[in-house]
């Protein structure tokens, strides 16, 4: 593209062809070459500056993960459908992801974990989501643009699993799903997602700017990558996931040091447990409205 802007340096000096001495022509031609090189450097500088600006502007509109709920259960709405869901029919389990632009229900790359429930064990099925760009844009995965949401309301009572019912427009068709938690727990749950979704739709939700994470060429960058699913993890679990993903051998002490350094920068959060163990989780741009706390 730049070759179309700059004249060809091999062009002969017209004055030489008209009888000017060769030395004079060389001096004239050399001066022309210097001017051409100067012009070329200016054009290249302007072109690179424009390219960098375009890349910067496109980066500002990138989608940001705000929260995740592993083991969520999705079903169609209506009394019959709710009854089917209560007995395990007509429902899909996966991971619910909230971004600043969409609500995504992912059912790919599924894992099964057995959780203790009293003297019994319950199966929790979820999808690991560290990069929303890797979620196939096809069923059974569901993608709901926040801008298309018509209504969202809490669901669940004393004997029902907490969650919310959501309606949205999809190509002129009104759709409705019920999404509930796959397990009971203390703290915030899917009901608390309702006001955040409403505020995102209305453009009122405040988001904080988090520090830029280190490169994945570094240990700290690798730690941030495995914590991108917004779940709390201990040092040994983080070490295992980093070793598995990046095919490296690590020492728990260096992983602990890396986690503490990231926590001091505000990139991840540190959660001491009553047992003395420490857990870490990726910080959320929701700030005080963090749905994982």
Could you write a compact summary of the structure shown?
With 293 residues, this protein is α+β, with helices and mostly antiparallel strands. The chain has helices spanning 14-17, 22-60, 79-86, 193-202, 219-226, 235-246, 252-265, and strands spanning 65-76, 91-99, 102-106, 110-117, 120-127, 142-145, 149-155, 163-170, 173-180, 233-234, 268-272, 278-282. The protein folds into three domains: 2-60, no CATH class; 65-202, PH-domain like, CATH 2.30.29.30; 219-289, Arc Repressor Mutant, subunit A.
Strand content: 25-35%
* CATH superfamily membership of the largest domain: Pleckstrin-homology domain (PH domain)/Phosphotyrosine-binding domain (PTB)
Largest sheet: 7 strands, antiparallel
CATH architecture of the largest domain: Roll
Radius of gyration: 28 Å
Please give the alpha-carbon distance between the first and last residues.
52 Å
Structural class, by secondary structure, is alpha+beta
- Work out the helicity level: 25-40%
CATH fold assignment of the largest domain: PH-domain like
Biggest sheet: strand arrangement:
6-3-2-1-9-8-7
CATH class descriptor name of the largest domain: Mainly Beta
**Low-confidence segments:** 1-18, 25-29, 39-61, 115-126
Number of helices: 7
* E-strand count: 12
Mean pLDDT: 77
Shape: globular
H/E topology pattern: HHEHEEEEEEEEHHEHHEE
Write down the domain tally.
3
């Amino acid at each position: 593209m730049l070759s179309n802007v700059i004249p060809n340096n091999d062009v002969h000096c017209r004055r030489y062809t008209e009888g000017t001495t060769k030395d004079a022509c060389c001096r004239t031609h050399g001066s022309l070459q210097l001017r051409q090189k100067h012009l070329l450097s200016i054009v290249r500088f302007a072109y690179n500056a424009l390219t960098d600006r375009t890349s910067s502007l496109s980066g500002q509109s990138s989608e940001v993960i705000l929260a995740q709920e592993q083991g969520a259960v999705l079903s169609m709405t209506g009394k019959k459908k709710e009854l089917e869901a209560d007995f395990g029919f007509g429902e899909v389990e996966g991971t619910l992801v909230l971004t600043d632009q969409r609500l995504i229900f992912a059912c790919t790359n599924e894992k099964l974990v057995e959780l203790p429930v009293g003297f019994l064990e319950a199966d929790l099925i979820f999808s690991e989501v560290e990069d929303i760009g890797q979620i196939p844009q096809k069923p059974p995965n569901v993608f709901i643009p926040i801008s298309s949401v018509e209504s969202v309301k809490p669901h669940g009572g004393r004997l029902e699993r907490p969650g919310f019912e959501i309606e949205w427009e999809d190509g002129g068709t009104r759709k409705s799903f019920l999404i509930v938690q796959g397990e009971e727990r203390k703290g915030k749950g899917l009901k608390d997602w309702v006001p955040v979704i409403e505020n995102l739709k209305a453009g009122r939700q405040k988001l904080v700017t988090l520090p830029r994470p280190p490169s994945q060429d570094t240990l700290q960058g690798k730690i941030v990558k495995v914590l991108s699913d917004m779940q709390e993890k201990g040092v040994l679990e983080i070490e295992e996931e980093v070793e598995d993903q990046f095919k490296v051998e690590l020492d728990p002490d260096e992983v602990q040091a890396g986690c503490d350094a990231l926590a001091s920068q505000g990139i991840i959060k540190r959660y001491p447990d009553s047992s003395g163990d420490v857990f870490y989780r990726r910080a959320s741009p929701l700030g005080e409205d963090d749905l994982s706390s």
